[in-house]
Design brief:
The chain has helices at 3-40, 59-72, 85-94, 108-118, 147-154, 181-189, 206-214, 249-253, 273-282, 285-294, and strands at residues 50-54, 78-81, 99-102, 122-136, 144-146, 172-176, 201-203, 219-224, 232-233, 235-237, 260-268. By secondary structure, it is of the alpha/beta class. It folds into two domains: 50-129 and 262-305, 3-Layer(aba) Sandwich (D-Maltodextrin-Binding Protein, domain 2), CATH 3.40.190; 131-253, 3-Layer(aba) Sandwich (D-Maltodextrin-Binding Protein, domain 2), CATH 3.40.190.10. Strands 1, 2, 3, 4, 6, 7, 8, 9 and 11 form a nine-stranded mixed β-sheet that branches. Strands 5-10 form a two-stranded parallel ribbon. Strand 1, helix 2 (59-72) and strand 2 form a beta-alpha-beta unit. Helix 2 (59-72) crosses helix 10 (285-294) and helix 3 (85-94) packs parallel to helix 4 (108-118).
Length: 316
């Protein structure tokens, strides 16, 4: 046998040995990963992230949900984007996101379109309670307004703070863009579906509204209670004869605050299992602790009483 043939045989043997060794390592690694997953109960790593889009009011909540969930489940990636409830709902309908965050209930047509386009029932899951708060500058002497007074301001009938018990100064009005669920909710429940006054300054998110009011002694704005920093949330009166009610957890939970609401997750029933696990976690006691830490209010019932797979009904 020549030296060349002998060397070739040795090289072939080494290649075969290396391949066998790699296969053994891969098998052991696979068993170890399976064992670790079974032991921890955590989802296995996925190359495809969970994509969530929608309400700007809910962005800070969604981001905190994602942060805490990914800490506990290193194999899962959750991506959060805002843009408004309407934007998130549109993305859910056309299938470009896994879940829509919305600060308003979906409309009947939106629900029908989602089920038709996605080929599955739509799930509606409340994940938090919110007080839609009305904010004024910290120096403003007005501490409460009725629903009708707020409506008068935002429809342009009331233009000076002296008309509602304040100082003689023009009211500067800040609001949200029309893709916002908060805009739609406010228009329906406070303005009785009347149009906003042309002089309302439209801003792209609740944080922008807060910043504007905090810098404007004559300003007024509205948004989710979790954003109430460096401004004052006024008491809201159901009518002229009612007392002003401050937006607090107890007044939202017992229904005495006039403009409280649910914050929702919307997703389809044929979604990936890891999405359902994320939703169930959000309404669990651990997830509801995140809700409190962000500044919204936890659901009135426990997660075991709020199934994450409840299909919506078209009764609106």
């Amino acid at each position: 046998m020549s030296h060349l043939q002998f060397a070739s045989m040795k090289l072939s043997a080494r290649i075969v040995f290396t391949l066998i060794f790699c296969l053994i390592l891969a098998a052991c690694g696979g068993r170890e990963q399976a064992t670790d997953t079974a032991a921890t109960g955590r989802p296995q790593a996925s190359s495809k992230p969970l994509t969530i889009k929608g309400s700007d009011t809910m962005v800070i909540l969604g981001q905190r949900f994602a942060e805490e969930y990914m800490k506990e489940n290193p194999g899962v990636v959750v991506q959060i984007n805002g843009g408004g409830s309407g934007t998130g709902i549109a993305a859910l309908i056309n299938g470009t996101v896994d879940l829509a965050q919305s600060s308003r209930p979906m409309k009947d047509k939106e629900k029908a379109d989602a089920e038709k386009n996605r080929g599955a029932k739509l799930n509606e899951t409340p994940v938090a309670l919110d007080a839609l708060a009305v904010f004024v500058h910290a120096s403003n002497p007005v501490h409460e307004l009725s629903i009708d007074q707020i409506k008068g301001i935002y429809t342009g009938k009331t233009t000076n703070w002296s008309q509602v018990g304040g100082k003689n100064a023009p009211i500067v009005i800040y609001g949200r863009e029309n893709s916002s669920g908060t805009y739609e909710y406010f228009k329906e429940h406070v303005l009785s579906k009347e149009d906003f006054a042309p002089r309302v300054q439209t801003l792209s998110g609740t944080a922008a509204v807060i910043n504007a009011v905090a810098a404007d002694a004559n300003g007024i704005g509205y948004g989710g209670i979790a954003y109430a920093k460096e401004v004052r949330a006024i008491g809201v009166k159901k009518d002229a004869a009612s007392p002003g009610v401050e937006p607090k957890e107890e007044t939202v939970a017992n229904g005495t605050y006039p403009i409280s609401r649910n914050l929702y997750f919307y997703w389809v029933a044929n979604a990936r299992p890891e999405l359902e696990r994320f939703v169930q976690w959000a309404i669990s006691p651990e997830g509801q602790t995140v809700v409190e830490n962000v500044g919204y209010y936890p659901l009135a019932t426990t997660a075991s009483e709020v199934p994450a797979t409840t299909a919506t009904t078209r009764t609106q």
